[in-house]
Each structure stands twice: as C-alpha cells, then as structure tokens.
Amino acid sequence: MAEDFRRVADQVAAEIAAGRLRPGDRLPTQRAFARSRRIANSTAIRVYGELVRRGLAVGEVGRGTFVRAAPPSPGHALTEEGTAAEGGPTVNLELNYPVSEGQSELMAQSLAGLLRPDVLEAATRPAAADGTPAAREAAASLLARGGWRPDPGQLLFAGNGRQAIAAAIASFVRPGGRLGVEPLTYPLVKAVAERLGVSLVPIAGHADGAAGLVDASGLCPEALYAAHRRAPLGAVYVQPTLHNPTSVTMSEERRSQLAAACAELNIGVVEDTTWAFLAPEAPAPLAAHAPARTVLVDSLSKRLAPGLTTGFLAAPATHTAVLADALRSGAWTAARFNLEAATRWISDGTVATVTAAKRADTAARHRLVQRRLGGFRIRTDPRAYYCWWELPAPWRTDTFVAAAAARGIAITPGSAFAVPPHTAPDAVRIGLASPTREVLAYALETLAELARRPAGG
Fold first, then answer.
1. How many H helices and E strands in the chain?
2. DSSP letter string over 25-75?
C-alpha cells in the first residue's frame, strides 16, 4: 500500500522520540533496513526519504543516513513558535543567545580530527585548572584586544563563564565581605554573591536623569572611593565594554582612572568581557591598566553557541594559585574534551568566522530597533545584542512585562538587574539575539504598539 512507508517511518520516529535511536546514530543501509523490516527496497527508500523530509534524519553522501539532532526547544533557549493570547508567535526576548547561520557545520568540520581514537583518548583525560599549553595559547590569542594580550602562563579555565565569574569573586572576597558593582548588573552576579555570602554594594555614578545610572563613560571612581570609605570592599565587578543591560562602553580615560582607584584602595577587579567580542575597536581592557589586580573573565557561549560553555580567566601572576584553588574547591574547572574542542575552534578560525557574522548581524538587528522603537527612549549601542528601554508614562515595568507576556512576548524587567538599595526606573531589557530577524521585527512592532496604548488598555 502507498501508505505503508509512512507507517514504517512513524515507527522509526517513535524510536527516535523514545531515545532508542539517538542523534548521530547511523541508520542501517536501506537494503539492510528493508530486510530487517520485511519490506521492499523501494519502500525502504521512501521511508528514509520521509524521515529526511520530517527533519528526523540527514543523508550524507558516501557515509549513509544518520539520526538528526532534535531541533532546539525554542521556548527555553531560543524562541518559541506557538500561538499567543492574541495570535502570532510566542517570542522569548529574555534569554539572549546569538547563533550564526552555518556555524554548526563549521564547528563539525573542526571536530573531525578530535574523534580519532588516539586523539579522543587524550581528550577524555582529566584536565587541571590551567588546561593545556595549546589551550592557553589559543585562549591568549582569543582574549587579546586593544594592544593587550594575556600571558598564556597566567590563564585558567572554568566549565563556563558563570563559573569563571563565581571563582573570580570567591578568590577576592571572603564570605561576609563586600563586592562593588554597577547599580544595574548581571543578574547572575546577584545570585552568585548570595550563594557565596557576599554583600553587593551598588557604586552609584553621576546621576543620569531618571535612570540613576553610571554616566556615559561608565562606573565613577569617586563613587568607588566613597563606598570603600563607608566599609572596605574586597573587589569590584565591572563590565567595561557593552555593559549589560545598558550597552555603555567605558572610555579609555575612565578605565585608567578606575584602575588607579583600585590600586590606591588595594582592591581586586573582576572584569567581565563576555560581550566585548562584538566591539573589537573598544579600548584595551582594565586588565591592561591594572594587570596586578584584575581577573578578566570571558567564555565561548556568546561567541559560538549557548551549550558551548568553556570559561576563560586571565589572572595576575600573584593571584593564579588562589584562583586555581577557588576553581577546584567549587568544582568549576573545565572538562578536557571541552578544552580540546575550544582550542580547535579558536585555532582554525572557526570562532573568528562566526564572530564576524555575529557582528554583522547586530547591525541588521539594530536597524529593526531603529525602525520599530525609534520614537522611544532607548539606550543601546549598535554593536550590542540588547537594548535598555525606559518606558513611556504611565507604563510601569510590571504591568508592561505582564501585558507583553499576554501578547506572547517575554522581556526582562529592569528590576532583575537592579542592586538594592538602588531601584531601577520603569524600564525593560530587550534581548535581540535569539529570534530570527523576522520574528524579532514582529515582536518589536508588537511592543511598540503596546507602549503607545494607555497602561492597561
């Protein structure tokens, strides 16, 4: 019967859904499959064609047919295509993971050599906090910017960027200590500090109207001095380039002033450069101005993909032992296989190629922001994958976020970034990276229409 091949395809699809056939598994040859299922060869050919059509399998010339990786669950990591309360796609603009078209194919090519048995055996052995010589050299080239290049001998590795931040904070600030941060900071730092028993101290800058943020040059040294006088700080955590969520990039002069202040106060610096790859022309990092007290942290997750989580730490020579202890005690060191994969992606140009594509992508997405949100008070940088939107009156953050959710769009309230006692203005962060440009355009237009309505209307 003509429908028999679809019935057999349904059976194979069920085996994939149940996990009996896993992504990457090679299916039998069509002749062997026909024998095992007691069907004609012509039917087996149609079954395999149907599996490919459904996106469950992929055929590779000369190699065979393989179970394809399942598509991402868009509602969590990327975007969710569904039906919202008023129709249209459901879009997650909270999580912010850029993915460049074709990057998986590039990464797969890099990993081919890693899967040789002798190479794989070495890659699955344990790794120390300082990784391998090849990993250190690759990471040093990746992190170099603005005329600064870290000493490969002072590089350490974490399982991901978040673990790198946690280890850096733990290495500087003991439980019960104080960590200076910008009034709006990366929400994970708030959670890490709570877990480590560290108090966060917002370093208020020159007032910026209703925003109450640091000024256009970044965190102000005068405010750092004032906070330290009230009670000593163990360190300060900063994002000097493309600060998340405001996109502010600290000026060269301000970096020099902040470095001098930290040296005078004898406090450490945790410099987060996770998003700095999008601004290669930005000033040299704080680590170049204060090399004796700065731990620079970075990762691969934004450069490549959210599941690729190798974290990098460039530390002062006098601080590497303490930082390595923090990584080991927290069980935050990187897996050897991840280090080997990262080394290959960096060394063969895969990271550079994907990075260039993402830099071009941000410009295209910001054109959408300008067209849809141009009449509103938006703080952003055309190189960033996010924007900070101070809502028009009479909208309040909570009611706007709820109204957006009712229309199938998830956005981040400003309160998620605020460090008490500082309070955020009525504002939201819009993540631009995860949805397709078409879906992003739809979402921005929907949010703009919503903002023009009376609150609750």
1. 16, 15
2. PBPPPHHHHHHHHT--HHHHHHHHHHHHHTTSEEEETTTEEEEPPPPP-TT
Q: How many whole angstroms separate alpha carbon 287 and alpha carbon 291? A: 5
Give the rounded distance of the alpha carbon of 387 from its chain centre.
15
Count of C-beta atoms within a 10 Å radius of residue 410: 18
CA–CA distance, 15 with 5 (Å, rounded to integer): 16
| Distance between CA atoms of residues 150 and 141, nearest Å | 8
pLDDT one-digit tens code per residue, 52-68 = 888 888 876 667 888 88
Q: What is the DSSP secondary structure assignment for residue 114, as one 8-state letter? A: G
Both tokens of 435, joined, read 């949805």
C-beta of residue 178 within 8 angstroms of C-beta of residue 234: yes
Give first-to-last CA distance, the chain, whole Å. Answer: 57
| pLDDT, tens digit, 9 for 90 and up, residues 73-129 | 433 333 333 334 444 447 999 988 898 888 888 888 888 888 888 888 888 888 899
Q: How far apart are CA 265 and CA 225, in angstroms?
A: 8
Task: Supply the pLDDT for residue 1.
Answer: 47
> What is the spatial distance between Cα 374 and Cα 452, in angstroms, rounded to a whole number?
13
64 or 181, which is more confident: 181
Q: What is the per-residue pLDDT for 18?
A: 82
Give the global pTM. Answer: 0.80
Q: CA-CA distances (angstroms) from residue 340 to 100, 212, 323? A: 22, 44, 22
pLDDT tens by residue, 389-416: 999 999 999 999 999 998 999 999 999 9
**How far is residue 277's CA from residue 143's CA, in Å, rounded to a whole number?**
9
Q: What is the largest CA-CA distance in the chain?
A: 84
The Cα 120–Cα 99 span in angstroms is 27
Contacts of 210 (CB under 8 A, 6+ apart): 390, 425
CA pair distance 90, 74, nearest whole angstrom: 9
Q: How far apart are CA 129 and CA 326, in angstroms?
A: 10
For 404, left (φ over 0), alpha (ψ -120 to 50), or beta? Answer: alpha
Residue 143, token pair as written in the block: 């992190």
Cβ neighbourhood burial of 216 (10 Å; 0-12, 13-18, 19+): middle
